[in-house]
Predict the 3D structure of the following.
Amino acid sequence: MMKSKYVIELSRSLNETVSTSSKGNQSKYLYKGKWYKLDCMGYEGLAEVLCSRLAKAINFPYETVEYRPCVAVTYYGDKTGCESDSFLKNDTAEYSLPRLMKHIYTTDIDDLFRKSHSAAERIQILCEKISSLNGLSEFGRYLTAILEFDRLVLNEDRHFHNILVIHNMSSGIFGYAPLFDNGAALFSDTVMDYPLSEKAVACRKKIKAKPFSTDFDKQVNAAQSLFGAQIKPPENIFIETEDLYQYYDEKCITRCINTIRVQLQHYYPKVTVKFPESE
């Protein structure tokens, strides 16, 4: 049985966190241990939900954030978006890579790459620094898995602030943050760059990767040359989509489904992906 539509009322008194991306600002609210991210440039919430379901279906080798679709009732109107649990505990803190470099090594992350030219050189230099921290010896594998996933879903917003590590303040041990923030994937920006009227081939030609190269293949190939391939999906994948039609237009969902299917067939040709609508 399909779940009923999830609607959450967000009071004006709640603290609003505005997250900045290369495209603009997205409203986020923390309420009772859950984050609510509201759509800003198109169907970011849909992209988050489908990417989290895809990550689970392909057995992404690290923990992932589960995003769920929702409608938020706000003082400026009803907005679609997604809900997720906070992955921080009382004794943990998050560090983006730039903040980590500043905190541990008192240097800007860009200073690491002053004399490096290739994506492989930049990845290796960064991973050597981060892997020396307690608990992060496999940071290169973790980073490679993230870059592989970004290529698969065409996430154009994986800047350094969207790569986090978690610090346990009691033990002093660092850990890997779950895979999160894929709202800029699957051509979700229908306002500026990828209107629904535009064909996927044209969208694909415009999209740019981050943070080591603007080319998804180049930065993945560079990381894999150092640490090997990390994502190894099963041959048969099923992704639930039936509940999403309560929240988003069929055109948006169809575009996402087709993009996932094309990307999987290109990079993992032995994999078969099924969605409820195609059965």
About this structure: The chain has seven helices and eleven strands. The mean pLDDT is 90. Residues 250-267 form the longest helix (18 residues).
